[in-house]
Amino acid sequence: MDPPELPEIPRGAVMTTQEYAYFRLRNAIMVGALKPGTALTFRGLADQLSLSPTPIREALRRLSSENAIEVLGNRRLRVPPMNPGLFEELVHLRTTLEVHAATRAFPYISDMAIEGLAALDAQMDDALARRDLDALTRINQLFHKTLYALNPNQAAIPLIESVWLQLGPFQRQVIEHIDPVATEDHHKEMLSALRERDLPALCAAIEADVHDGSIRTGRQMLQMPAQPGP
């Protein structure tokens, strides 16, 4: 079986090899390019990224500490599988953290910031039309981070990214089982609330975005019995 594709990321001139390995693997997990239960090896990842095992080992150590990689016996590694209890915990955490972050960012909303968010929403529409799920997930996360980062004293984004990192692999599986075109576009609701300076409407749109059809489908998928192997 061919190894899973690891989406490329920009590599700045000052980015070390260890940083590059970490951020590329982290991005692959966060956008769901690596599915839950995917087995990983130091050597396999090193070969795929054309790097020595040392930066891969350090990257996986960091990702393990963030609960994005599971270390098993005999030096085996895998992307953690999802279970119903963990899924519900992550969904509730995401809702609480993102509503908090939006509320704290709200006093810093400006027309210029809204224009920037609207441009990202247009990019999401384009990625959706092309069925580019990697780009759709990446731009969606950038939309939310851009909003929350309007608060100059924000401290929630690292916590939110930790939740995204744990949800990403399973959430991508869910998206592949539904038609994103048929789901409601809650980002346009967020933009409308921002333009009207309506904080309750903004929080309601964010909560609706978290609890959209993909959450219902995710719950259904987790309740399905595991299929026996060949």
UniProtKB/TrEMBL annotation:
Keyword rRNA-binding: no
Record's keyword terms, sorted: DNA-binding, Transcription, Transcription regulation
Keyword Aminoacyl-tRNA synthetase: no
Pfam family name, one: GntR
SUPFAM superfamilies listed in its UniProt record: GntR ligand-binding domain-like, Winged helix' DNA-binding domain
Start and end residues of each HTH gntR-type domain: 15-82
Domain of life: Bacteria
Protein name: GntR family transcriptional regulator
Native species: Paracoccus mangrovi
